[in-house]
Amino acid sequence: MYKNLAAALVAACFSLPTFSQIQPAPASAAIKVAWVYVSPITEAGWTQQHDQGRRAVEKALGHQVRTTHVANVPEGADAERVIRDLAQQGHQIIFTPSFGYMEPTLRVARDFPDVKFESITGLKQAPNVATANARYYEGRYLAGVAAGRMTQTGLAGYVAGFPIPEVLQGINAFTLGMRSVNPKAEVRVVWLNEWFNPARERLAAQALMDQGADVLAFHTGSTAVMATAEERGKLAVAYHSDMRRMAPTAQIVAVTHQWGDYYTQRVRQAQAGTWRSGNVWGGIKEGMVRVEAFGPKVPKAVQDEVLKLQADIAAGHLHPFHGPIKDNAGTERVPPSQTLDDAQILGMDWLAEGVRGSLK
Questions:
Q1: How many C-alpha atoms does 256 have within 13 Å on its Cβ side?
Q2: Per-residue model confidence as pLDDT tens digits over 49-58
Q3: CA nearest 240: which of 120, 358, 359, 117?
Q4: Which residues pair with 216 in a beta bridge?
Q5: Rounded average pLDDT over 35-57
Q6: Mean pLDDT in the chain?
Q7: φ, ψ of residue 138 in degrees (nearest 5)
Q8: Which residues 6+ apart lie within 8 Å of 222 measured at CB?
Q9: Residues 6+ apart with CB under 8 A from 176
C-alpha cells in the first residue's frame, strides 16, 4: 500500500509550479465556485479553515464571484454524487478538501472536462484536476518544541486519523521538535481511522491522559481533544485553527492553515482563463502554515524561541527532517548532515524514534 502511495506522491510532487509561482490573474466575468466539506462547519478546525478561505474569495472578488458549499459529506459514493451535482449546476471550479475525495473528484472530472477541480490533499492530477496541500509538518515541529518545553511527564499523546504520509509527517515532526529540546520525550499515538468523530476523539484523549500524557496533539477534524484537555487541566496543541475559545488555558499554541490567498488566486486564474492543472505544496515561507496564538501558560522565552525557529524555517535555515534521524525500530532513516527531500517526505511510511505506536 505504502509503496504505491509513495510512488503516486512522488509523481505529483515534481509535476507542477510552486505556490510562489502562482500569480493572481485579473478578475473578469462572474464565476461560480463550489466547495465540498467532509465535516460540519464548526467554530474551529479543518472545515472552518477552508470555509474561511471561501469567504476570503468572496471578499476579494465581491460581485464577480458566486460561491456554494456543501458540508458534512462522507467520503465515497456520497461525495461523488455531490461533486457531480455541483458540476451539473454549472460551477466552473470545484474545491474538494479531503484526501478521501480524490478518487470521486477524478471520476467526476472525466465527465466534465470544462470544469476545473482542485483536490486538496489529493495526489493524483488530470488536465482539469489540480492538487494542493500545505507543509503542515513545519508547524508540527515548532509545536513540538513548545510541547517539549511545557511537558512535565515527558509524554505527549497524539490522536490521529489515518496512517497516511501527511499524518506521519506531522507525528514525526512533532516528536522531533519535542526531542530537540527534551531528548527523552515520547509521543504515544492512537489511530481512529476516521477524520471527524468528536466522541471517539474525546475518548482517545482521555485514554492518553490516563496513560500519563500531559500534552496532547491531534490530526482529526473537531475541537474535542482541546476541550478534553481543558477539562482535565492538561495542555494541548491546537490544529487547523486557533482554539483558545474551547481551551483558554489548555492551548499551548495553534498550528493554523491559511487557504484564503491560494483559493483567491486559483479562482482568479479560472476566471481569466489562465488556470492550469498542477501541484502546490506550500508551507511557512508561502504563508500557508503558521504557528500562533500562544496560550497564557506559555512563558515568553518559549514563545520567542518558537517564533525564532519559525523565522528560521521560512528563511530555509532549519528543516525538521535534517539528520541524523532513526525510526522507532532503530533503523537509520536520515544520515547525519543529510536532509529528506520532498519525494522522501511525501512517501513517508515510518514513525520516528520516540514515537510509541505502529502504523495500525
A1: 22
A2: 999 999 999 9
A3: 120
A4: 157, 236
A5: 92
A6: 92
A7: -65, -45
A8: 39, 42, 45, 196, 197, 198, 201
A9: 141, 144, 320, 321, 325, 352, 354
- Give the DSSP H or E segment for 170: helix 165-181
**Phi and psi angles of residue 124, each rounded to the nearest 5 degrees, phi first:** -110, 135
- The single-letter code of the amino acid at 315 is A
pLDDT (tens digit, 9 = 90+) per residue, 163-199? 999 999 999 999 999 999 999 999 999 999 998 899 9
**Residue 221 CB contacts under 8 Å (≥ 6 apart), including other chains:** 38, 39, 45, 46, 47, 161, 195, 196, 240
HSE-CB for 204 with a 13 A CA cutoff: 29
pTM of the model: 0.84
Taking alpha carbons only, the member of 237, 241, 242, 169 closest to residue 205 is 237
Q: At which residue does the C-alpha cell 527531500 appear?
A: 341
CB burial readout 99-112, b (16+ within 10 A) else e: bbbbbbbbebbeeb
- Grid coordinates representing 196 are 471527524
Q: With beta carbons less than 8 A apart as the criterion, state whether 236 and 246 touch.
A: no
Contact assessment for residue 180 and residue 324, using Cβ atoms and an 8 Å cutoff: no
